[in-house]
Amino acid sequence: MSLSRKLVLTVAGNRLITSLVSKYGMKLGASRFVAGETLGTALEGIKKINDQGLMVTLDHLGESVYKKKEATAATEAALKLFDAIHERKINSNVSVKLTQLGLDIDPTFCYENINRIVAKAKEYNNFVRIDMEDTPRLEITLDILNRLLDQHGHEHVGTVIQSYLYRSANDCKELAKRDVNLRIVKGAYKEPTEVAFPDKKDVDQNYIKLVQQHLSGGHYTAIATHDEALINDLKSWFDTQKIDKARYEFQMLYGVRSKLQKQLVEEGYRVRVYVPYGKDWYPYFTRRIAERPANALFVLKSFFQK
Fold this sequence. Notes:
Strands 1-2-3-4-5-6-7-8 form an 8-stranded parallel barrel, surrounded by 7 helices. It folds into 2 domains: 1-33 and 295-306, no CATH class; 35-280, Alpha-Beta Barrel (TIM Barrel). Helix 4 links the parallel strand 1 and strand 2. Helix 1 runs antiparallel to helix 11, helix 7 (168-176) packs parallel to helix 8 (200-216) and helix 8 runs parallel beside helix 9 (228-241). The longest helix is centred in the first third of the chain and has 21 residues, at 68-88. It is built from 12 helices and 8 strands. It is α/β, with parallel strands linked by helices. The chain has helices spanning 3-12, 15-24, 39-51, 68-88, 107-123, 138-152, 168-176, 200-216, 228-241, 258-266, 282-291, 295-304; strands at 55-60, 92-97, 128-131, 157-162, 182-185, 221-224, 248-253, 271-277.
């Protein structure tokens, strides 16, 4: 972890900073990365995003929960997302984290919750993406995914593969047997060198390999990166391999590389924006600052503008 990232996360954990940013942050900069505290506000933002030719994946923010009541509330919130998406006729699917649905409480209880969500996605012919978390939770996440695939098929549920893990190529190979829709990311958790590539160049090389591997097998692939060099390398490969643009999409975060998102749409590519919302936005916001501390300048400027 870089020194700047450590510093940001340390400062973010200070009680006074937490209190101040939580109280004023949405008005003074956090709204760049979070679409609002309420679903209604988020939906208004999504309509504007859709009008620019961009698709969306909507996420009700929340961290790991340790009470069944909280996990049930998160499940109900996800179910309401699909109702709202259908009623508003917006172009969006939904992303969820299993820890928010009770994975750390009881995997069986968690499965019951995610099963309800996938059933709702199926009802509306929509899609839910199960976000991948750190490696201690990887196997159970894949086990739950496979149970869902057995019950609902692959059209309405998919997951995420992280290119910084040594095992990811094999995981991709196994999931390809079930034609799973995969989002490929570099990975955001701090993992030991026993399980993850320590060098960025190896992570990047594996990223390209995983995208090419999954697409070459004929499986839909979501390419989640803001790395323009990787994007350009893949675009060249798409051209040489004559890969149909309908077989993949680029994915980026709300508030990050907006010009690049629009540029890709203008070039005829499918682009989806990850749009988070909710009252528990502070941890997500601090991670965005930690990933790129220069983002903090945007927030600081907001504090001093009249």
